[in-house]
Amino acid sequence: MATGRTHRPATRSRGIPEATVARLPLYLRALTALSERSVPTVSSEELAAAAGVNSAKLRKDFSYLGSYGTRGVGYDVEYLVYQISRELGLTQDWPVVIVGIGNLGAALAGYGGFASRGFRVAALIDADPAMTGKPVAGIPVQHSDDLEKIINEDGVSIGVIATPAGVAQQVCDRLVAAGVTSILNFAPTVLSVPDGVDVRKVDLSIELQILAFHEQRKAGEETSAEEGPDAGAEPEAAAVAPPAPRGATGSTGRKGPDGDVPAVMPA
Amino acid sequence: MATGRTHRPATRSRGIPEATVARLPLYLRALTALSERSVPTVSSEELAAAAGVNSAKLRKDFSYLGSYGTRGVGYDVEYLVYQISRELGLTQDWPVVIVGIGNLGAALAGYGGFASRGFRVAALIDADPAMTGKPVAGIPVQHSDDLEKIINEDGVSIGVIATPAGVAQQVCDRLVAAGVTSILNFAPTVLSVPDGVDVRKVDLSIELQILAFHEQRKAGEETSAEEGPDAGAEPEAAAVAPPAPRGATGSTGRKGPDGDVPAVMPA
DNA sequence: CCATCTTTGTGCACGCGTTCACAAAGACAT
DNA sequence: ATGTCTTTGTGAACGCGTGCACAAAGATGG
């Protein structure tokens, strides 16, 4: 039972690399902005700058879609907007349900980015009876008892989970059983789904921790300016005594990659 | 001026690959859950299942941190929690400011995942004078005029941008100028930052579009079951007439990778 | 019609990340 | 102490993604 990621293993969908797919929305946004300013054409260089990527990468990305673009001129903005929209499946309407209307769920319900691109909030669902009927962002909240009915009636295939972590898996199971095949998960849990179901995770806490890592590294570098190609700069946080390994019988010295704490165990 | 990503180009921070760093929080979460259940040790297989990754990958990830773990037994949960926390820089306190207290900003302010891991909401900042002083999630909102002062006084190095896209770059610039070196951006814009500043992006709209792509592909596969190694299943959305390239003078037939629309231009 | 100039599209090489598969290490029983 | 059994740690192979650099394509001017 594959727990977690369920993307096509290597079956690159119709030849378009996953990394490229992930950038298409970025290009689309930049192109839309140009379109609104009535810019007729754009070069790969300009568009790449607007999207924050390398121009070679952008050209290669577009080459997977086909030979749009005119040498010596650039890309036709309107045409490209259409092609990318079509490729991403944004020319059709995607009904979406949001489950879990707490602070975050409510914020998502009111997020403008939904409606703008073919996504339509079909329903807001919450388990709290007190919420039922209450309008959030203009849409009345429905009770989770009706989850299956809602999904079937509206033909919903994309679900957003904004519940507490504790119930996320249950909600996920119900969504999948009801026919949802794509899930955007905001709950801090690893969701287990059957093959054929895509899960994407948005995890604030993880993002912050990654930033903290780099931040710490920057702070460490600063103090120990230059002292070798790989001197790693052990941060000062080692003031806290590390817990020692529990089942350790022998006294096999712990060895970090750069001379770590030598496992003096306090217990 | 590097617009966008600003991660270490190839200077893998102290030898820990970026991909590994991104997974450490995942492991940490699983380990914390085990710790709360007082589980003393865990094997790479078990932990990998809990974190939703391959066990070999997990072992390799840990090998970058050092030789923790005991062969034949597994990893000591408490010890590993400490080591990963330390590596991620979570043993110290990270004051964080959230700029833009709309729906999303308010939801973030109330998010429990902050406090749990060394992150402390130092201030909520909004440009709307009507918000100033109003408590959100127990913290009074401060006016953006005081942004620089707040950051300096509290030694804030991590900023969260939850403003509308239009002002995100300006806010970003002010944050950076005031000394912030890590930014978590929720605004749907590409931020331009100087070297040495890390930006991570959380973009709901992009995630949904990626899901839509895969969803469309699944739907297409379904209808055209099997008809060749590369027959790509053109979706039915082509009912909408595509805009033709604008500056096209000649009638150079557009050729998509799988026989696209032949650029009949209506104008 | 030809020359020049711009910009695309892509072949190629390189590096990172993933996965396999196995030897080494240690726990545990006898 | 010795053997067996479990699980780690990692060498090696592979595949994907990225970026360089350039040839081909077409626009534009004379």
Automatic annotation (TrEMBL), chains A, B:
Biased composition (Low complexity): 230-249
Location relative to the cell: Cytoplasm
Keywords carried by this UniProt record: Cytoplasm, DNA-binding, NAD, Repressor, Transcription, Transcription regulation
Annotated ranges, domain CoA-binding: 89-190
Annotated Pfam families: CoA_binding, Put_DNA-bind_N
Protein name: Redox-sensing transcriptional repressor Rex
The family this protein is said to belong to: Belongs to the transcriptional regulatory Rex family.
Function description: Modulates transcription in response to changes in cellular NADH/NAD(+) redox state.
Domain of life of the organism encoding this protein: Bacteria
InterPro entries: CoA-bd, NAD(P)-bd_dom_sf, Rex_actinobacterial-type, Rex_DNA-bd_C_dom, Tscrpt_rep_Rex, WH-like_DNA-bd_sf, WH_DNA-bd_sf
Keyword Ribonucleoprotein in annotation: no
NCBIfam families per record: PRK05472.1-3, PRK05472.2-1, PRK05472.2-2, PRK05472.2-3, PRK05472.2-4, PRK05472.2-5
DNA-binding region: 26-65
Region of interest called Disordered, as start-end residue ranges on this chain: 217-267
Gene: rex
Subunit structure: Homodimer.
HAMAP family found in the cross-reference section: Rex (MF_01131)
Positions annotated to bind NAD(+): 100-105
